[in-house]
Write a structure and sequence with these properties.
- The protein is mainly α and 209 residues long.
- It has helices at residues 3-19, 22-26, 39-58, 70-74, 84-97, 101-121, 139-161, 171-186, 188-196, and strands at residues 127-130, 135-138.
- It has a two-stranded antiparallel sheet with strand order 1-2.
- A hairpin with a 4-residue loop joins strand 1 and strand 2 (135-138).
- Helix 1 (3-19) packs antiparallel against helix 3 (39-58).
Length: 209
């Protein structure tokens, strides 16, 4: 199986080990470490990083001249909580959280079981359609975006629970893709300065989401 697909499955497994904790269900309606999101909403959003993949694989892929890259997919997403994308994410996550911890966990379990088989069967050039954004990506580029979500929000959930964050499989993929986003948004020189010359990085260009 392709390296990115293995990294995704490992990242999903690490996230699942936190999502299944009884403490998550017990603190479901409490505030999380993220502004305006409960523990339940954060968990539901984290689970969507897994459950969205079978949906995209099953969706009809419209014709496209060139699929978007993982970095381009994330380009409209930023740290502005009032942005339409972030507002929509919080609203959708809150709606999913109302179904409760057992339902969210069961959906994540089911998706993981499907993907352990299906990701090994899909060709390298497989395209997927992300209906929520009406965008086409290669499967592996879409999985890079899911690895970012899994790594970032597994950490968020652990912080929300006051637990140490476990080793995050695929974090190297997440970091590389986040740097690609920064370079696409600000240019390579700005990223170089952010990494090596912080005094020349007044805009904190590595803070991309």
């Amino acid at each position: 199986m392709h390296e990115i697909r293995l990294a995704f499955l490992a990242a999903a497994g690490a996230a699942h080990s936190v999502v299944k904790l009884e403490e998550v269900g017990e603190r479901w309606d409490e505030p999380s470490a993220l502004t305006d999101m409960t523990v339940g909403a954060l968990t539901a959003h984290l689970a969507r990083a897994v459950t969205s993949v079978p949906e995209c694989l099953d969706a009809h892929v419209p014709e496209t001249e060139e699929p978007r890259s993982a970095a381009a997919y994330f380009l409209p997403v930023d740290a502005d909580l009032a942005s339409p994308i972030n507002t929509r994410i919080r609203h959708a996550s809150s709606g999913l959280a109302r179904e409760g911890h057992p339902v969210v966990l069961a959906a994540m379990d089911h998706a993981q079981e499907l993907l352990r088989v299906r990701l090994s069967e899909e060709p390298e050039d497989r395209l997927v359609h992300v209906k929520a954004r009406d965008e086409v990506l290669t499967l592996d580029d879409y999985l890079k975006t899911r690895i970012i979500e899994l790594a970032t929000h597994t950490d968020d959930l652990c912080v929300s629970l006051g637990r140490p964050t476990p080793t995050l499989p695929g974090v190297d993929v997440a970091i590389a893709t986040l740097i690609d986003i920064a370079a696409l948004r600000h240019g390579e020189l700005a990223v170089l300065r952010a990494l090596a010359r912080r005094e020349r990085d007044p805009d904190q260009v590595l803070r991309v989401i």
